[in-house]
Specification:
Blueprint lengths: L1 H11 L3 E3 L10 H11 L3 H19 L5 E2 L4 H4 L2 H17 L3 E8 L3 H12 L2 E3 L2 E3 L6 E4 L5 H14 L2 E7 L6 H4 L2 E2 L2 E2 H14 L9 E5 L4 H10 L5 E3 L23 E5 L1 H4 L15 H22 L1
Parallel strand pairs: 1-2, 1-12, 2-3, 3-6, 6-7, 7-10, 10-11, 11-12
Antiparallel strand pairs: 4-5, 8-9
Helix pairs in contact: 2-3, 3-5, 3-12, 6-7
């Protein structure tokens, strides 16, 4: 699947991923009202509003982008109806030819990790039949439990031609409480990066590994070091826009070929209509505002990478 991701990025010229992380307060009132009129102010109503919101954004941006990244917690909070909206979103995006990165941040050991991997990336056996439950193309994985937690995911990825993004250095302010701790004179995130590179060497696509890394845009100097440690790992870069990352901060996440990184923006795109720069579109045309935000993001990153 890494080959398709790289192909999509080359085709669109847009090394970005749209984070489909819908909170209800991101969803325009007219969308919510329509959903509530049909399903009431219920979990089902919330899930329908989320689905319609996602669909509009995808319809207005799919031709500009290579991938989407739905964050499962935003759906799980609405229970089973929310998970059904998550699945509808995954399926619809794949119908549009987009690569789907399931932002699930799972991390466990043994049979539990294997069950997570099967549920999100693989096939589950039911009697004589097998089914693909969620069927994302990539999943984010927390490596804190070590290889025992990651290997079951790698096994399923090998079987299904899927991929992973391993958390290495995350964009949140307190990430350093653990990730920056020094071990034998080196920060923990560097050691995790080395392990990602090691896992990835055994699972290569045409140009890059199926095993990628998550490195926050808010730590560009660390990204520069990790890029060298993981030359064949695709780096998923959260923290652009709403969390403060800008195109100029991201140049070192990319390799000299202009590839090797894909930058995520969530509310900066899906809630663009709330921003002053895109207020002219109004709430009725929130999808058009998202499209304009995508175009601006692509321009910012492309120009920054070309000028480095």
């Amino acid at each position: 699947m890494i080959n398709k991701l790289v192909e999509n990025i080359k085709k669109t010229g847009a090394p970005i991923v749209v984070g489909l992380d819908p909170m209800l307060n991101y969803i325009p009132e007219h969308v919510q009202k329509k959903a509530f009129a049909e399903f009431g102010e219920t979990l089902e109503g919330a899930a329908e509003a989320i689905w319609q919101f996602n669909k509009e954004i995808v319809d207005k941006t799919w031709d500009l982008i290579p991938a989407v990244k739905p964050q499962i917690a935003m759906y799980e909070q609405f229970g089973i109806p929310g998970l059904m909206a998550f699945k509808k979103t995954v399926d619809y995006c794949k119908e549009k030819g987009l690569v789907v990165i399931g932002d699930i941040k799972r991390g466990d050991i043994g049979s539990t990790s294997a069950a997570y991997a099967v549920g999100h990336l693989g096939r589950v056996q039911v009697g004589s039949k097998s089914y693909v439950p969620f069927d994302e193309d990539f999943a984010t994985v927390n490596p804190y439990l070590g290889s025992d937690g990651v290997n079951p995911f790698i096994k399923v990825c090998q079987e299904e031609n899927k991929g992973l993004f391993i958390l290495v250095k995350t964009s949140n302010p307190s990430s350093g409480e653990f990730q920056d701790q020094m071990i034998d004179g080196r920060p923990l995130y560097e050691l995790v990066g080395e392990k990602v590179a090691q896992w990835g060497e055994e699972h290569m696509g045409n140009e890059y590994s199926y095993i990628g890394a998550v490195v926050g845009a808010t730590y560009p100097e660390m990204g520069k070091i990790l890029r060298k440690i993981m030359p064949k790992a695709y780096i998923l870069v959260p923290g652009y826009g709403a969390q403060g990352g800008k195109g100029k901060d991201l140049v070192h996440f990319f390799n000299e070929d202009g590839l090797g990184a894909i930058v995520n923006s969530s509310r900066g795109i899906i809630a663009a209509y709330k921003q002053e720069d895109y207020a002219k579109y109004g709430t009725e045309n929130f999808g058009e505002a998202s499209r304009a935000a995508v175009e601006a993001m692509v321009k910012d990153i492309r120009e920054s990478v070309e000028q480095r």
